[in-house]
Design brief:
single chain, 216 residues, alpha+beta, 9 strands
Length: 216
């Protein structure tokens, strides 16, 4: 079913410290309202990313050659691509979350960019359990996607906006946890899936289970 083993990367900051195969991306052409996403250290609390399968981004069409039988893992890995000025995942489902289910909904949306269709209720029971008051941490995502979809995942703290761009450009679908509003008012953490970015507009785009599709 999967010609390669894509990677789901989770992190508790906007930078997921991985690079993968470029896939499933196209240049951004839509023009939603802009929101400032400045270079430098991101202000997000958390992040997650999924690597898509076997398609080449229009903005970066160069082919990556992977050594089929390299003597070491390091020598078999492709070189990461530089991030272009804009990039967005062309195919990503939007899901409106059920109660307190932003985490599993974000995972479902990220998986959809790779052509994996899974119900958020199935993801909820696996990643949060039956207690609707319980949130989702990143730790359980890796074992779940490995067992069910033959994917690998990881998560990291303390990333940057530049690293997030590089992840997207190399085929990872990031998911981040951010405060729903100013944390001095309300410290409610919220998972959302990063769909792409546009440096000219100064934005990242997210599929948000409470706010909608392709939100800048």
């Amino acid at each position: 079913m999967y010609p390669r083993r894509p990677v789901l990367a989770l992190g508790l900051a906007v930078g997921v410290l991985l690079a993968g195969m470029g896939a499933g991306l196209r240049a951004t052409t839509s023009d939603p309202l802009a929101a400032g996403a400045e270079d430098g250290t991101a202000r997000d609390v958390g992040a997650t990313a999924i690597n898509a399968i076997d398609t080449e981004p229009v903005a970066a069409p160069a082919t990556i050659d992977v050594v089929a039988q390299a003597p070491t893992l390091a020598e078999s890995l492709p070189s990461p691509r530089d991030a272009p000025a804009s990039m967005v995942f062309g195919d990503m489902q939007h899901v409106w979350q059920s109660l307190n289910n932003c985490g599993p909904a974000a995972v479902v949306m990220a998986l959809s960019a790779m052509g994996v269709d899974v119900n958020q209720e199935t993801a909820r029971l696996a990643l949060r359990g039956t207690d609707v008051r319980r949130g989702m941490g990143p730790q359980g995502v890796g074992p779940w996607v490995k067992e069910n979809f033959d994917l690998r995942s990881t998560w990291r703290n303390g990333g940057t906006n530049d690293l997030m761009r590089r992840l997207i450009a190399n085929g990872f679908v990031p998911m981040v946890t951010q405060w729903m509003q100013d944390p001095s008012v309300s410290r409610i953490a919220h998972w959302r899936t990063v769909r792409g970015y546009d440096d000219g507009k100064g934005v990242f785009y997210v599929n948000d289970s409470m706010l909608g599709n392709m939100v800048p």
